[in-house]
Amino acid sequence: MAAGSSSGTGGPGDACRHHAQLGVCESRAKYREGRRPRAVKVYTVNLESRYLLIQGVPALGVMKELVEQFALYGAIEEYHALDEYPAEQFTEVYLIKFQKLQCARVAKKKMDERSFFGSLLHVCYAPEFETVQETREKLQDRRKYIAKATNQRDCFVSKKEGPKKTVSKISGRDCPWNTSGQCAASNWDPSCFTGSQGVSHNVGHPSGNRHQSPLIYPHGNNYSETSGYFGQSTSPTPSVQPGGGTPPTPLAQQRTAPIDNGLERFMPRTTHLQERKRKREEGNKFSLIGTSGDKTEVVIGPQLPEIPKVDMDDDSLNTSATLIRNKLKEVADSVSRTSVEKPESSAAKPLVKQRRRI
Amino acid sequence: MFLAHLVPSYPFLLPLSFKVSLTLQGGLCNLCLDKTNKDYILEANGVEPVINCLSSSNEETVMSAVTTLMYLTTPQSRQQTTALPVVECMLRFSLSANRRLSNLATVFLEDYCTPPQVEEARNLSKHTAVGIPLPKD
């Protein structure tokens, strides 16, 4: 889940605290606000950054080697030494900017507290070096990532809704509003809500069926108080006219468009899910401890554990069937092989024994 | 799951302590993007405690609060999350010496507020000296 994205609890926090203990001077506050004596235990999107600050690099002229080490984890955009940064004697401080946040995350995890040319490195995020645009991108990426990950769950809802919607379009005007109620679970919730609520306000007295729309929303009662906002907020449907067959359809079309995108995204995603499931199964076979979980976390990045797994269980009925089928084929082949060999080598027992050992 | 426990307790915890712990606000920032959590938080009037966190003396809490407000902004909650005092506060943050905070505040003002809103807040702040205090460095 998103809470799992906090990549460290005590560990990284301790490292940061440890930095602070190195005789922080006043001028430091301007550079690094996050390195307070207060332990930062929860990593939020604010604290993570593509910029990494590396302290404790021995002053042996090893910048090239250092950058090479970090480049193993991803493409580096910039790097330079921070000469004005307070550092221990005989050590240097470097700033490395990765192209991707994910790479920075991995690099930090691996390189922190690692020995480098005889000295322990301290690696920290350095979000204070970001520009406004970089901060903006960082926040948006995080939002997109989670939307994608939760979409994966919503896609199951939307896939069922898709055929319903097309049918409802044919059947009547009020039906799109019925399905829009189910939209509440999806990411297009805001537009659905304002759209349909706006229409129900603007349209006034449509057919009696329309009045059903408030009832359909699962949180209909709770949102009754926020309906006042709808009147004030800019409604995306100012042009909706009562008694028009057209108003529902453009909105419904808007809604089907994102759903179609969801479906498109949905298809390739199943293959990813299948692969992940296979990897996990293999990992579970070989490792007693769930170290494979760590690997998948590294692959996926900001850990969103349980939810996708649950979805996979719902979804991959087909894939598990194919897997089983494949395995059965393999077993059948091996069985047929051994059964063929058995009559041949029934007399030659040592051969059979050899096979069993293998 | 952690979330299942935390989210129901959230509305109880925040009203209790104005000084929300760093961990709680940070955790909230992380999980408020998920749709179900967002809906829950909005439904449980969670925006107000987050706005209160903007006054926290702990800058990490403040920054997490800014980000949480960003993520909690929906067409429905926009009235709350971009209320005048909030915009005013963000204006002051955007002038902060703390680069991270000023970046966050700038993004908030640019992406989540309309220019009239910012203008209104700017005019107001010229008159009043009292506002949400900046976090101590």
TrEMBL record, chain A:
GO CC field: nucleoplasm; spliceosomal complex
GO molecular function, one term: RNA binding
Nucleus as UniProt keyword: no
Keywords from the named record: mRNA processing, mRNA splicing, RNA-binding, Spliceosome
Top-rank taxon, per record: Eukaryota
Keyword RNA-binding: yes
Start and end residues of each stretch annotated as Disordered: 203-262, 331-358
Regions of compositional bias (Polar residues) in chain numbering: 221-240
BP terms from Gene Ontology: mRNA processing; RNA splicing
Main function: As a component of the minor spliceosome, involved in the splicing of U12-type introns in pre-mRNAs.
Family recorded in the similarity comment: Belongs to the RBM48 family.
Name of the protein in question: RNA-binding protein 48
Source species: Limosa lapponica baueri
Biological classification of the source: Eukaryota, Metazoa, Chordata, Craniata, Vertebrata
UniProtKB/TrEMBL annotation, chain B:
InterPro entries, sorted: ARM-like, ARM-type_fold, Armadillo, ARMC7
Coiled coil: none
Source organism superkingdom: Eukaryota
Name of this protein: Armadillo repeat-containing protein 7
Organism annotation: Limosa lapponica baueri
Upper classification of the organism: Eukaryota, Metazoa, Chordata, Craniata, Vertebrata
